[in-house]
Amino acid sequence: MSLSGFAAPWWFLLLLAVAALVAGYVLVQRSRRRRTMRFANLELLDKVAPKRQGWIRHVPAALMIVSLIVLTVSLAGPTAEQKVPRNRATVMLVIDVSLSMEATDVAPTRLKAAQEAATQFAQGLTPGVNLGLISFAGTATVLVAPTTERTGVVKAIDNLKLAQSTATGEGIFSALQQIDTFSSVVSGVDGPPPARIVLMSDGKQTVPRDESDPRGSYTAAQAAKQQGVPISTISFGTSHGAVMIEGQQQEVAVDDASLQEIARLSGGDFHKAVTAEQLKAVYATLGEQIGYELKDTDASRSWIILGTLLLLAAAGSSLVIGQRLP
Question: In this predicted structure, which of 35-39, 144-148, 297-301, 311-315 has the lowest mean pLDDT?
Fold first, then answer.
């Protein structure tokens, strides 16, 4: 652990005092040896002097020195990186409900599998995260505004209905508007809470046709980048999906390329799932990323315990070996 891992590294100056104690101990031992050698009658000295205990007599002093070093480390405030739940964040879950989600290449259908995975995501998200829900097809619909209550989100996921067309850009713009509105209400001295959009879709945008249109998905992704809201995109489905629309079978292959570009333009990340199990795994990964953050937390307790135990061991060994406290 480097010095940057300590809250108060100046306490390490105490190690100079510890080093002085070590030097003093060595000098005292040498001085005692010289005084002992002044006896003229070495045979008499062997008879009257107690038997030397060898290196073991230094154990109490060594334990005390080590305990002082450990306690000095604890005073310096060691910190450790630890995963802790977020107590403020905003997440908008944006789900594609276009007719292509009725494809059965993912059993029982793409939509049913998506509903189950999204429900687990909502229920498993840490309590401090405000979660909202938007569905989109030809238009975007705000189903639940950001909230820490999960019941309404889960119920809205269960009631998702299919509709025609895919207006991905509208879904993103609606999510950004919800985040902006919510942030203006809950923003404190630390500024607005961090926000993210989780976008799940299985197909290419159809309204408008051009992703770079002012209301297109690429334009919306760039707007998200400007607002500091990364988009985690999930491409869900296979390349051989098909649905019946107006009595005709139409292929509805997933469009990984556009979702990858949305993630890139927004500064987010792209995920792909072709089975219900993979989709649940993706949501679980996102839940970990979104619901928790790495923070430097106080790690001095273990050092204090170790230092105290060593100090007690020094006292105990001194009583056993030298019949006195150090």
Answer: 35-39
The torsion angles phi and psi of 246, rounded to 5 degrees, stand at 55, 45
Question: Is the previous residue joined to 108 through a cis bond, with omega within 30 degrees of 0?
Answer: yes
Q: Quote the tokens at residue 271.
A: 């995920």
CA atoms of 139 and 169, how far apart (whole Å): 9
Tokens of 61: 């002093």
Q: Are 258 and 211 in contact (CB under 8 A)?
A: yes
Residue 139 has pLDDT above 90, yes or no: yes
Q: What is the mean pLDDT of residues 86-96?
A: 93
pTM of the model: 0.74
Which one-letter DSSP state was computed for residue 163? B
**Per-residue confidence at 325, pLDDT binned at 50, 70, 90?**
low
Q: How far is CA 68 from CA 62, 72, 307, in A?
A: 10, 6, 7
CB 265 within 8 A of CB 225: yes
Whether 126 contacts 166, CB under 8 Å: no
Please, are residues 171 and 136 in contact by the beta-carbon 8 Å criterion?
A: yes
Cβ-contact 285, 278 below 8 angstroms: no
Domains of the chain: 3-78+299-322 (no CATH), 84-296 (3.40.50.410)
Q: Tell me the pairing of strands 129-136 and 292-298.
A: unpaired
Give the contacts of 112 (CB within 8 A, at least 6 positions apart).
Answer: none
